[in-house]
Amino acid sequence: MTDNAASQPEVKAIEPPATRAHLEWIDGMRAIAALYVLLRHITGFLYAPPIDVKWWWRLLTPFLFGRAAVATFIVISGFCLMIPVARRGGEMRGGILGFARRRAKRILPPYYAAIAFAIIVTLGAGLTERTHEAWELTLPLDVWSVVVDALLMQDFTGNLYAVNYCFWSIAVEWHLYFVFPIVVLLHRRMAAGVMATGVCLAVLLTSVSGAAAKMHLPHYWHYIALFTCGAAGAVLAFDEKHTTQRARLQRFGPSVAAGAAGLVWVCYKFRLGAGTAPDLMLGIACSALMVTLALRQDLWLTKLLGSRPLVWLGGFSYSLYLTHAIVLQWVWVKLVLPMQLSGTGRMAWQALICIPLTLAVGYGFFLLFERPFMQTAKPTLTAAPE
């Protein structure tokens, strides 16, 4: 009797979260990741030319790991896309073709509008000269670069940063959508933990053997494992069959997330694993965190991430991601450099002008080119297409 009574609260706690059209804390995670990417790209101007002010470097060093934010977007995407599938017991609404149509409508119109925006600003404002910033990675702006971007083939070619150095991750995510039906099939055949572990090990072994054999693998192809970690997290949180696993994750999820995050920091700090290992640990940490937030709506972090400012910013984080790089370069070339300021002055003005301006441009772009293609009614969560 005592054992049964003690187990009753645990049974209630492991039920799947109530069906909701939208989870605000996910928007908060998107917002923080988008802001981090923005600050990371602002730090890039420390090198143009290098600023010999130690406190600037100390202040901005924590923002030098922009790929971690992009990896977070990928995990969020896998998590969000799998939620409706997990709630339906492994069924994809509309099948593969319906899924493909929804994703194409969601991310491609803003993406192509962003390509046009980048070309117009680059040519119209004369941003084709090499001035020793990250924007040099996008030059020369030629027909081949535009074709590669339009076909979303940056990760399969040498033009990874063509047109806009942020667009490569859109190509990676687009290709992950072709992997998603396979992830759904794996979900039907095996447990979520086994699925995520198997994919991570396969990716890690292929990366090691590929490097040893000097194989040419697509850029950032190991993001398949991050995407799968996110999907596995959604299964554990929302699939009715995983009651036992939810009980364990509710208890140990925060510890798993904290431990994996600590390993991520160690890997990034000491440059271990050449990117693959820390990214995989980040996938585990982020997925464990999202499962915890889904199961524990009472946590202060859940409420913080679901606050109005972060939800508002997360709502147009895709547009902000697509447009901020060209805005940063325009401000630097047209406004900051002509002032002929000291290194400290240049960085201060770059931050003061760019942060509000990129938010304004991103939100305006969202209203014009993204919101019209979003579902007016949200029966399920939409993935972060960043």
Radius of gyration: 21 Å
Number of strands: 0
Oligomer: single chain
Tell me the major beta sheet.
Answer: none
Write a short abstract of this structure.
With 386 residues, the chain is mainly alpha-helical. Helix content is 69%, strand content 0%.
What does this structure look like?
- The chain is mainly alpha-helical.
- It is built from 15 helices and no strands.
Question: What descriptive keywords fit this protein?
Answer:
single chain, about 375 residues, mainly alpha, 15 helices
Walk me through the topology.
Layout: H1 2-13, H2 24-43, H3 54-60, H4 66-87, H5 95-124, H6 143-150, H7 168-189, H8 192-212, H9 223-238, H10 243-269, H11 276-295, H12 300-305, H13 308-315, H14 317-336, H15 343-370
Helix pairs in contact: 2-4, 2-13, 2-14, 2-15, 4-7, 4-9, 4-11, 5-7, 5-14, 5-15, 7-9, 8-9, 9-11, 10-11, 14-15
